[in-house]
Design goal:
Elements (H helix, E strand, L loop, with lengths): L2 E4 L2 H14 L5 E5 L6 H12 L13 E4 L6 E5 L13 H5 L4 E5 L12 E8 L7 E8 L1 H11 L1
Parallel strand pairs: 2-5, 2-6, 4-5
Antiparallel strand pairs: 1-7, 3-4, 6-7
The chain binds adenosine-5'-triphosphate.
């Protein structure tokens, strides 16, 4: 498991954008990190490089936002509100099995519903500066290992 250090929101977006060029239909990206860690910022970069020009906002209240105007559909999920359960009835599988890229924030709250292969990206405040983040990649599955290797390279 390797870590990438970034020092600004722009750099976090750049990393998201790099991933956006590499993702394939059906890919699942989990974004972990505390409030304000940069999960949505990362997703904005990913969305931009997919060719989505709409402003990506956190789907905290809607749970899922779909964007269909890019190279691939983007399904942006924020399941923070499912801390106490209730995810079983939402049909999230349809997103995971779909042709788009699923990006899930706070995936620990739906861990029992997740497929077995994915790329987990954890963002953590680090260092002395407010804008410093350490980004750790954890790949499950060969395809996701390739994505992780490309992001780190
Ligand atoms: N290196 C950085 N990467 C990402 N965001 C940063 C960084 N440095 C500062 N920030 C700021 O931190 C905030 C991150 O907000 P963002 O909505 O992306 O976090 P989040 O993890 O999605 O939070 P939430 O769980 O509340 O949705 C933004 O205001 C952003 O400008």
């Amino acid at each position: 498991m390797d870590a990438i250090t970034v020092t600004s929101p722009a750099e976090t977006m750049q990393l998201g954008a790099k991933l956006g060029k590499l993702v394939q239909p059906g890919d699942l990206i989990l974004l972990d990190g505390d409030l304000g860690a940069g999960k949505t910022t990362f997703t904005k970069g990913l969305a931009q490089s997919l060719g989505i020009d709409r402003n990506v906002k956190s789907p905290t209240f809607t749970l899922v936002r779909e964007y269909h105007q890019g190279r691939l559909p983007l399904y942006h999920m924020d399941v923070y509100r499912l801390e106490d359960g209730g995810a079983e009835d939402l049909g999230l599988d349809e997103y995971f099995d779909g042709d788009g890229v699923s990006v899930v924030e706070w995936s620990q709250f739906i861990s029992e519903l997740l497929p077995t292969t994915y790329l987990r990206i954890a963002l953590k405040r680090s260092g002395d500066q407010d804008d410093d983040r350490t980004i750790t990649l954890q790949a499950h599955g060969e395809h996701y290992q390739q994505l992780a290797d490309s992001l780190e390279g």
